[in-house]
Write a structure and sequence with these properties.
The chain is α/β, with parallel strands linked by helices. It has helices at about 15-20, 40-45, 115-125, 135-145, 155-165, 170-180, 200-210, 240-260, 270-275, 300-315, 335-345, 375-385, 410-420, 430-440, and strands spanning about 5-10, 25-30, 35, 50-55, 60-70, 75-80, 125, 150, 185-190, 215-225, 265-270, 320-330, 350-355, 390-395, 420-425.
Amino acid sequence: MAASGALVARVEEGSLAEDLGIVSGDVITRMNGYPVEDMIDYRYHLADTEVTLEIRKTDGQTVSVTARKDYDTDLGLGFHTDTFNGLRRCANKCLFCFVDQLPPGVRPTLGIKDDDYRHSFLHGSYISLTNLRPQDWERIEAWRLSPLYVSVHTTNPELRVRLMGNPRAGRILEDLRRLVRAGITVYAQIVLCPGINDGDELDRTLKDLATLCPEVASIAVVPVGLTDFRTSLFPLRSYGRDEAVAVVEQVHRWQESFLKKIGTRLVFLADEFYLLASQPVPEADSYEEFSQLENGVGLIRRFINSFRRTAARLRARADARSEYYIVTGEAAFPVLAALVDEVKSRIPGLASRVVPVRNEFFSSRVTVAGLVTGQDIARQLPGHLQSCRRSPRVVLPEVMLLDGVFLDDMPLVRVQASLGVEVTALPAGGEALARVLLTGGKACG
C-alpha cells in the first residue's frame, strides 16, 4: 500500500507555499479536512480561496497551515507523481502489448503498464476500463472526469476478451454507455491487428461506436507495433502495403458515411497507415479538430503545414558555414526529404540532408521517429558525417527524448559526445525546423 498524501518534490522560490514554510520532502496528507489521493483532489481543493493543509513534516511532526488566496492562485508546489496513493496498473494480457516485447536496456518507465483513469483524465493516456472499481465509477460520474481516453480495439465482447486476456474486457459497450449517460466525452482508440480485429470486425466496431456519438467524439485507428522481442508471445505480423491500402480505403468509406449522417468523420487513421500504403496524408480539414495528435493522427499534416507557413514568411539566407543533418525515423523520411528539397530550391548553397535512422534497437519494423534510440543514432550517423565539408549541425525531434534521455536510457549529451558535433533537439511541429534551415537560428530563435 502506497503511503498516503502528496510528497512535495519542489517548492517555487517566492511562492505562497514557501511563505507557508513548506519544503521539499513534506507530505500534504489532507486539504480542507479531506484526504489527498491524487492531483485531481489537489486541484479541486486548491480552487478554494481559503485552503487548510495538514502536513507531515520531514521530521515526522504534523502541522496545519492555512493559505488565503485568490481562487486561481497556485501554491507553487511540484510533486513526484500525480497519483499520490500509487499507480493503477494494467490487469490485462493483451496479445499486442508493446511493453511485453521490450528489449533489455530501455528507459525503466517504459516498462510500466499504466491503466489509471486519473492519468487518462489528466494527461490523455489510454485506459481499458477493465480495472475500475465501483468507487472509481462513482467518482468519474460524480466529478464529471471528462474527457477520458479509452482503448476499445473491438466492440465484439468475445473478441475483446481474447485480445486483452481479461474476462472483464467483454463489457466494453456497457462501460461506454455508462460513460455516455454520465456525460463523459470519450476519445477512442483501436489498435488494429491484421486478420484479427480488422475487416468485418472493424466495420462492426465503428458502427457500434457511432451510435454513441457525440459523446464518443473521435476514434483513432492505429497499426499494431511489433518488435523483435516477442519471445513466446502470440504470433502477430505487421501490415503490408496492400493491406494498408485496404484499411485506408475502408476507413475513408466510413468517414464519408459518417460525415453525411452525423456531421463528423468520427474515425481517423494514424499517419503510419498512409506511409505504409505509400499514400499522401490527407489535408488539414480532413482531421477536423486534430483531436488524436498524441496517437500519431495528423502529426505529419500539422508538421508539413507549419513548416511551409514558416518558410513562406521568413527571409531565407544560406548558412555558408554549416551543413544540417536532420535525423528522423524511416517512416517520415520521404516527407521530410521532400520538405527540405523545397527549401533547398529556394536557397542556393544551403547544405542539408535528411538522415533516416534504421531502428536496430527495437526492430527494423519499427519505423516511427519517436522510437528512434540514442545508440542507433550514435552508430549510424558517423557514416553520413564523414562526407561533411562544412561544420556539421545535427538536429532531431524532441519526441525522441524525455528529460534529455532516449528510450534506450542513453542521454543526449552522450550521443553528442560520441558524434563530436552539436546536436539540437527541436520542438514538435515544423516551425522550429524551418527556422533553423532558413535562418541558421536555434530551435526557438
